[in-house]
Amino acid sequence: MSAVALRGIVSYPITPFTHSNQVDETLLRNIVENMLRAGVHAIAPLGSTGVMPYLSDEEREAVTEAVVKQVDGRVPTLVGVSSLTTERTVHHARYAQAVGASAVMIIPMSYWKLTDKEIVKHYDTVAKAISIPIAVYNNPATGGIDLAPETIAQLLEIPNVTMVKESTGDVNRMHRLVQLCGEKLSFFNGSNPLALAAFVAGAKGWCTAAPHLIPALNLELYAAVERNDLPSAKKAFYRQLPLLQFIVKYGLPRTIAAGLGLMGIEVGPLRAPLQPLERPQVEEIRTILGELEVLAR
To answer: Does residue 2 carry a pLDDT above 60?
Structure first.
């Protein structure tokens, strides 16, 4: 897959569980199929919504294989393969490639703060172990490490490190990346409330869990951006902004699980220590979804 093949709305499926706390592969496949039918441009299992750090190696492999097989080449798949150690990251990257993933995404994770040299070595080692593209994922709020634009630019010198997902919520980071790497840089927005600003800054796509709940609005925004229709893009963005802000405020797995539940899709218990939304927040998202006219009357 070339660096520019990944674009548009990149949807991150939640990992559902049975009431015996096993990954519900059947429901996962159904969720992915719903996203595909809605028209998303790529599927990215094992992101933050997919609770990757809470899964065993075997569960991660099951999720990877189930999603890649369900997608069946209809759109690109971007699989999260991050781990605390380089050895485990290589393992998951190789597995993703073996089952047919289009690309993998890596966020540096560490108990100790990593040096730039260590980070570059980490990515370089994984890159040499696989042949499919790698996306750099910068999200200090979850990974605990903030990659400076200059560090990301250095990582992009590694041959098959071709993309960046920037989730700090700072559009200036994106402008700086373009300055350092040129306008052909494939960067993707990972901060939901920043979607419109990121597209204006030149983002190739938007990595988001929102298509679980409002795929039509997400796609409407991207379509307006593609045809350079800023008034329509702003209209689509501001209509969905309250939900995007809510998702960020209360956490992706909790909010997506609650929203799907209100739409009649029960994704089972969250993986402890995560707990479901409290009743006031459930009512808040019910109101938001009601105003967006996505709940059955």
So the answer is: no
Q: Which of 95, 123, 165, 222 is catalytic?
A: 165
Q: Which amino acid is at 26?
A: T
Side-chain half-sphere CA neighbours of 178 within 13 A: 16
137 is catalytic: yes
**What would the mean pLDDT of 127-134 be, rounded to a whole number?**
98
User: Mind listing the pLDDT tens digit for each residue in 145-158?
Assistant: 999 999 999 999 99
Q: Among 137, 234, 235, 249, which one carries the catalytic annotation?
A: 137
Write the CB contacts of 57 (distance below 8 Å, at least 6 apart in sequence).
88, 91, 92
User: Does residue 25 belong to any structural domain of this protein?
Assistant: yes
Tokens 């939901």 -> residue: 192
Residue 250 bears catalytic tag? no
Which structural domain range is residue 85 located in? 8-229
Q: How many structural domains is the chain composed of?
A: 1
Quote the CA–CA distance of 13 and 44 in Å, as a whole number: 7
Q: How confident is the model at residue 4 (pLDDT cuts 50, 70, 90)?
A: very low
